[in-house]
Amino acid sequence: MARSSEDAGLRGRAAIVGLGERRPTKSPEGRTPLGLVAEAAIEALADAGLGPADVDGIVVCPAMMQYSMLWPSVVAEHLGLSPSYLDLVDLGGASACAMVARAATAVATGRARTVLCVSGDTWDPRGMYLKPPPLVSPLRDFTIPYGAAGANADYAMAARLHMARFGTTERQLAKIVADQRRSAQSNPLALFHGKPATVDDVLASPVVADPLHLLEIVMPCSGAEAVVVTTPERARDLRHAPALVLGFGEHLDPDPFQRPDLLVTPVVESARRAFAMAGVSPAEVGFAELYDCYSIAVLIEIEDAGFCPKGEGGRFVESHDLGFDGDFPLNTHGGMLSFGQPGLGGGMTLVVEAARQAMGRAGERQVRRPEIGFVHGNGGTFTEECSLVLGASS
Amino acid sequence: MKDPGGDAPGGGMPSFPRPLPALEGDAAPYWRALARGAVELQHCAACRRHVFPPRPFCPLCLGREVAWQEVDARGRVATFTTVHRATHPWFTGVVPYVYALVELPCGVRLPTRLVDVRPEDVCVGIDVEPRFERVDDAVTLLHFAPRSGG
């Protein structure tokens, strides 16, 4: 791989060496976000063969159901850690990828040697209504009074426009869900394990916000995930062949309603930066884990990350088998649409699965080409974006 | 946003009042204009561009020379969705309703609701005109309806 000027010396300078992933549940089952975070952290460190004394960095993201100031310190104190690098990443659905990007930068620059990235949350809709986490956004005064609390309506409008402009069909969008659900049948942790769904099943589910059906909308849940990031040199002495962090990129668009083209998102720039740092092209990607809060989010990410031209996403998903054993393995553990979405850090389950595939540890759902994987996190309504390129080490 | 209200007695789900905008702050002149039946936005003379949501500067050049002016509020539907399941409790009594993004001639796209139309008659690109809904003495919301007579 030729060195580009855009890798900033960061390409391949960090490695994921440990994974933690709790079984998601529909209700909190007596757990707290802090408790879930601790469970995932302990599991990831044990998986790496490391102890608390080995960790000198920690990166967390907020928990919606236990929103707390000083959260990095709270988590570190709870785990008995004494880190020299602490960070909070608050980028909605982009948080998980951005947490790994910060950890990788810290490790590559010597700021820290071993960084724990951990996210976790519970889900309780009643709690969400009674005590929503604070959010100051002037735009909300212009959306919620008109009936658009939450994100359903905004993504539905993106889907409607994509269909009107490019002829994308409901069946094409539903196929994304159905293919992912097929992969989830190889993932006992997924909320929808044992519950396959066909394209017709997706289209038979209730319309929530036209044209989106219930099964095209992610199910929030309780859960937690963690990864341990360290140097490739340190990784050699550890338990598993690591997943290398080859590239990352981040980008924000200040207003999803006023962008020149409503369907061209900042994914274009975050992915471009990640691929440039990694020195690879979309055509070299062997599997993709794309933030799937909604079916339409996946379709637009496929286009804007460069896997197909703008407007051809519908035909792309129709003409490729998106299962883990297909010709375009996508969201290989079922995606959040099948696994569940544990809070703002829900994207971490996509990072964990990508690392698992790149490490060659995905078992019966191992992809055929694990050498290069692309992971994407999307926050807001295609507002803040972060992309990662991971690579196998062998 | 106004506070969604306190706990209901008896420990059940509280009743949720209609979510309404905060009328003070940067957008105060916008809401006052709606109450008069006019749509006003800020305009940056340097960038020749309107500002939305309102703020005391232009987000393109950060210049503070932004002046309120009435704009033509006859627009077209940039995109829309028919909401069948409400995401705010107050709207459970309103579904199904059409939530839309309406593009005004000045280029600004406003999130809004379409009224006086059957959902199945809405398409991307149809022409719409404003419908001012007076909620109370202070608050008027800006809805849109298909333009009569083309």
Descriptive report:
The complex is a heterodimer of chains A (394) and B (150). With 394 residues, chain A is of the alpha/beta class. Chain A has helices at residues 33-48, 71-79, 95-108, 125-130, 152-166, 170-184, 199-204, 232-235, 267-278, 295-304, 313-319, 335-339, 348-358; strands at 14-21, 57-60, 85-88, 114-121, 207-209, 212-213, 223-230, 243-252, 287-290, 372-379, 384-392. In chain A, α6 (170-184) packs across α11. Chain A starts with 13 loop residues before the first strand and ends with a strand. The model of chain A has no long low-confidence stretch (mean pLDDT 95). Chain B is mainly β and 150 residues long. Chain B has one helix and eight strands. Mean pLDDT of chain B is 90; it is low at 1-12.
Query: Rg of chain A from C-alpha positions?
Result: 19 Å
Largest sheet of chain A: 9 strands, mixed
Structure classification of chain A: alpha/beta
Order of helices and strands of chain A: EHEHEHEHHHHEEEHEHEHHHHEE
Kindly report the spatial arrangement of strands forming the biggest sheet of chain B.
6-5-4-7-8
CATH architectural type of the largest domain in chain B: Beta Barrel
Radius of gyration of chain B: 17 Å
Return the CATH class of the largest domain in chain B. Answer: Mainly Beta
Residue-averaged pLDDT of chain B: 90
Order of helices and strands of chain B: HEEEEEEEE
Q: How is the CATH topology of the largest domain in chain B named?
A: OB fold (Dihydrolipoamide Acetyltransferase, E2P)
- Low-pLDDT segments of chain B: 1-12
Helical region count of chain B? 1
Query: Which percent range describes the beta-strand content of chain B?
Result: 25-35%
Portion of residues within helices of chain A? 25-40%
Biggest interface: A-B, 38 and 49 residues
